[in-house]
Amino acid sequence: MTAVDAPAGPGDSEDAPQRALRRRASLRTALVAVLLAALAAVLLIVAVTTHVSLRSQLDAQLDAELARTLARGPGPQPSGDLLAFLDAPGQGEYLLGAVLEDGTAVRGAWRDDDGDLEPLTAQDLARISAALEEEDGTRDVSLSIGRYRITEEDPVAGRGPGGGGAAELAVGIRTDSADLTIARLDLTLALVSLAALLVTGLAGSAIVRRTLRPLEQVASVAARVADMPLEQGSVALTERVDPELARAGTEVGEVGRALNALLENVDGALDARHRSEERMRRFIADASHELRTPLTAIRGYTELLRMTEPLGDRGAESLERMEAQSARMTALVEDLLLLARLDDGAPREQQRLDLAELLMEAAMDARVTAREHTWRLDLPDEPVEVLGDPRQLAQVLANLLSNARKHTPAGTTVQVRLRLHGREAVLEVADDGPGIDPSVQGDVFDRFTRADRARSGRDGTTGLGLPIVRAIVVSHGGDIALDSRPGSTVFTVRLPLAPPAV
Predict the structure, then answer these.
(1) Is 422 exposed, middle or buried (0-12, 13-18, 19+ CB in 10 A)?
(2) Least enclosed by CB within 10 Å: which of 36, 81, 250, 375?
């Protein structure tokens, strides 16, 4: 059966400030992300609007240039060749012309950068024909010689070969300059947008961090208070939000004022609880001290009565019951006195002792008193030395074994294991009994808690055995944990080992 680790308690929350920091970082990130997203949306709208506007303007300029080319160029040519206008004086380079018959480009030419006319390839003619069929007006076509904006002239009679028939003429100009302008614009807009986002991100992060700094200080106060052990003892709750931050009128100030008011209330409640605990401890200690004398007298008188007076059967039975109840009451008073001393932090004896030896003696006593149980002992070969009070640690072992005996039926197997884990001694007391009711497990270490309704107990109990065990273990710098389910109940005690002998 494996050991059970102690559950995390309030003192195990050392990473709470880191969790709070991650939450604050997430808030800053969210605010900066929202700011950057809004700016990115605005920049995108501006960029798209600028791109579309300039593209439309450049397309309009290209269309105007095409119109001027048609107006001054393609007229009746002396040679009868419709493409002769390409070689006319004043025509720009990269000008393109194509002759269409029945909507199909049959031939064409273009001016290269040297001003020479070059024929269009059949592939380029096919692309021009396809583009003219799909759209009306001007259209953009990607050719092997570059990207062109093309328009066509209406059919004119007498412009076919030899002056007869009808033919159409398509004229195009290269769009490289406009495309380059658009590309440069897009690149400029992208770089400016990235620079704006970067600067805004850095500046926004600094502004948000500065703005949230008061809130971080408030959260830091709350985190430090959350890490304080408030469950018992005297607690000085001195943490407060700086009055400069707890001024009314701002959201952070209202939070700071509310937190300070809450801390004042908690501080008062903790002080009242501590005073109440102190009064209860004094009452228990005083009452226990006062009860020891009459209980001792009762036991003495019952023994004297037994020795000096003749008793009948009923008288002897009544006397035995008085002796049993006085012994039980004496044990209860002694337990209460021990808890009161442990609560007060009374100094205890410090001795270097072998926990394995104490456990062996306790197990031998348990075998004698509970022969109907099966006892198994698993101890390491080497000594397990701890620093502590031998009487108190012996009581821890006796209480744990007595608890397993009292609350399990005959035939139950109780396994007692002791092992070393790092610089700790780990003691496990496990049984295969019916287990502890889950509704009781969280309270088994509280005083006067009884698990009799969940386990088949036969002996009277006071409900102080396990609280005493926990108080002694904690006073020795250790801890105790419980893991219970039907067929398996394990109490795990961890104690620090004694430092190596010099």
Answers:
(1) exposed
(2) 250
